[in-house]
TrEMBL record:
This is tRNA-dihydrouridine(20/20a) synthase. FMN binds at residues 18-20, 71, 140, 172, 212-214, 234-235. Belongs to the Dus family. DusA subfamily. GO terms for molecular function: flavin adenine dinucleotide binding; FMN binding; tRNA binding; tRNA-dihydrouridine20 synthase activity. The keyword Membrane does not apply. Its EC number is 1.3.1.91. CDD domains: DUS_like_FMN.
């Protein structure tokens, strides 16, 4: 690796977004096989789930996943501090506070995007977490809520939270609408305003500003990196995982990736076999890699095999062999 170049780059230069039900530890293991340097985020975990629930289930990860951030949902400073400590003790590299989720369930818990209207409370939470841990405490947020269109709102939010010691802001560059849209719809509307994220970087040059929302190709990433410190990619990375294969070389100055898709698939089969011995069904792992061969001949049939529930009692190696067969062979034919 080109050490000199790499050390000068922000650790937040590229990341895969936290995505509930998607970026679990198996997904992150898969992504890490494709890109060594991209920062990975857990799904959001609520402070209540961590303080009162099954901690290993929420917090355990594979050592290969570093650099790795735990995303928290919560608003009570003492709870956030306790959970940040858990994150540090468990070995996470960062703890991130979700101030961007518009779901009504999340609002009822008084966290997520509605916290953008309570910058002081977020600042208290950040301060409590920073007092509790040495790992970076970061915030992921929107550029506004509901019909607040003015840039001043997000500038003041970032200013107040930065005062409390937060140095890294991940900006999903569209407003959160707290009513009338599902979270899914609210990832498409209202429109993205990248200019707000760029302006934050100009107004707070000492902060790390990471842009998120609707980013697709590598050239788009490169363009954003001219204006901000980092780019976070969500759905594109998940649906087209091979799009991350060039990132280490292009954005981190590392050597070209040596593994091809077949190597990654083979490593995933080995991982599935290890997980099976812990009682994890291969389908829980395989569901995250269904986009691996997108755009290549036979990708559709390959995907069908890896999502075929009739094969659920087969060992992953057998499913793998089936997935390698020429397209003419029916999926259900016994091995
Ligand atoms: C299925 C799904 C689940 C998500 N869950 C979370 C979450 O737990 N925490 C969070 O901050 N954002 C969550 N998001 C939002 C993403 O982190 C990201 O901000 C959003 O998808 C925009 O980025 P993209 O256009 O690159 O996907 C989720 C998005 C999706 C698609």
């Amino acid at each position: 690796m080109n050490q000199a170049l790499n050390e000068s780059l922000s650790p937040w230069r590229l990341s895969v977004a936290p995505m509930l039900d998607w970026t679990d530890r198996h997904c992150r293991y898969f992504h890490r096989l494709i890109t060594r340097h991209t920062r990975l985020y857990t799904e959001m975990v609520t402070t209540g789930a961590l303080l009162h629930g099954d901690r290993p289930r929420h917090l355990d990860f594979n050592p290969e996943e570093h650099p790795l951030a735990l995303q928290l949902g919560g608003s009570e400073p003492a709870d956030l501090a306790a959970c940040a400590r858990l994150a540090q003790d468990w070995g996470y590299d960062e703890v991130n506070l979700n101030c961007g989720c518009p779901s009504e369930r999340v609002q009822r818990g008084a966290f997520g995007a509605c916290l953008m209207a309570e910058a002081d409370l977020v600042a208290q939470g950040v301060k409590a977490m920073r007092d509790a841990v040495d790992i970076p405490v970061t915030v992921k947020h929107r550029i506004g809520i509901d019909r607040i269109e003015s840039y001043d709102f997000v500038r003041d939010f970032v200013g107040a939270v930065a005062e409390a010691g937060c140095e890294v802001f991940i900006v999903h560059a569209r407003n959160a609408w707290l009513q009338g849209l599902s979270p899914k719809e609210n990832r498409e509307v209202p429109p993205l305003r990248y200019e707000f994220a760029y302006q934050l970087k100009r107004d707070f040059p000492g902060l790390t500003i990471v842009l998120n929302g609707g980013v697709k190709g590598d050239d788009e990433i490169a363009e954003h990196l001219r204006h901000v410190d980092g780019v976070m990619v969500g759905r594109q990375a998940y649906h087209e995982p091979w799009s991350m294969a060039r990132w280490d070389e292009r954005f981190f100055g590392d050597a070209p990736a040596e593994r091809d898709r077949a190597d990654i698939e083979k490593l995933m089969v080995e991982y599935m076999a290890r997980q099976a011995s812990n009682g994890v069904a291969w389908s829980h792992v395989a569901r995250h890699m269904l986009g691996l061969w997108n755009g290549m001949p036979g990708a559709r049939r390959w995907r069908q095999v890896w999502s075929d529930h009739r094969l659920k009692h087969e060992p992953p190696q057998a499913v793998w062999r089936q997935a390698q067969r020429p397209a003419a062979q029916p999926v259900s034919e016994p091995a």
